[in-house]
């Protein structure tokens, strides 16, 4: 992994020292509302119990995002390799970074790296259908809505009844949308 830079962000490979910032995100009820009904009580829930409690600072596919100007923690971005030519894009940002284009900026850097350097042919992302902010990020990246699933949960999060959406971007479409 390499360090990536955007106009306002530095995305560096995550380190164990980033774990406190990552856990801090999970303690914010608004950040976690589409994943866990709100804040995560790390004294009651272990990371081995639920997949969204990640990263912890040693994952090879996660970048920690910090602002260029003051090095303040913004959040994390990941490009998880599902297969040699397929990766899942993910991101989680602090609330003070919402609605500023930082999610699109950071995710766009990973998409560019994924297609331009890592050799992926398809990058996908998913979220709850009601998570309009995250869906807008995917659309700004050029991703296309390809599916809505309706999984059944024993104790569903409000909004689950609207489904979970999947967006995808193919390398050829990414190349076609890149400026010359």
Describe the structure.
This is GNAT family N-acetyltransferase. Residues 9-172 form the N-acetyltransferase domain. Keywords: Transferase. InterPro entries: Acyl_CoA_acyltransferase, GNAT_dom, N-acetyltransferase. Pfam families: Acetyltransf_3. Helix 3 (102-116) links the parallel strand 5 and strand 6 (122-128). The chain has helices spanning 19-26, 33-36, 102-116, 132-140, 171-177, and strands at 4-5, 9-13, 62-67, 73-83, 86-93, 122-128, 144-149, 164-170. The radius of gyration is 16 Å and the shape is globular. Helix content is 24%, strand content 29%. It has an eight-stranded mixed β-sheet, with helices on both faces. The protein has five helices and eight strands, in the order E-E-H-H-E-E-E-H-E-H-E-E-H. It has one domain (4-177): Gcn5-related N-acetyltransferase (GNAT) (Aminopeptidase, 3-Layer(aba) Sandwich), CATH 3.40.630. With 180 residues, it is α+β, with helices and mostly antiparallel strands.
């Amino acid at each position: 992994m390499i360090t990536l830079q955007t106009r306002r962000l530095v995305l560096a490979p995550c380190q164990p020292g980033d774990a406190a910032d990552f856990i801090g995100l999970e303690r914010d009820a608004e950040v976690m509302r589409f994943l866990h009904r709100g804040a995560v009580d790390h004294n009651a829930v272990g990371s081995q119990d639920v997949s969204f409690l990640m990263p912890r600072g040693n994952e090879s596919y996660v970048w920690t995002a910090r602002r260029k100007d003051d090095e303040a923690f913004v959040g994390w971005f990941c490009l998880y390799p599902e297969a040699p030519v397929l990766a899942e894009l993910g991101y989680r940002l602090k609330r003070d970074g919402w609605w500023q284009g930082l999610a699109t900026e950071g995710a766009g850097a990973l998409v560019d790296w994924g297609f331009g350097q890592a050799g992926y042919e398809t990058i996908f992302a998913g979220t709850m259908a009601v998570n309009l902010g995250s869906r807008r990020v995917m659309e700004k990246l050029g991703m296309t809505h390809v599916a809505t699933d309706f999984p059944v949960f024993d104790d569903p999060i409000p909004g689950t009844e609207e489904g979970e959406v999947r967006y995808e971007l193919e390398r050829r479409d990414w190349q076609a949308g890149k400026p010359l």
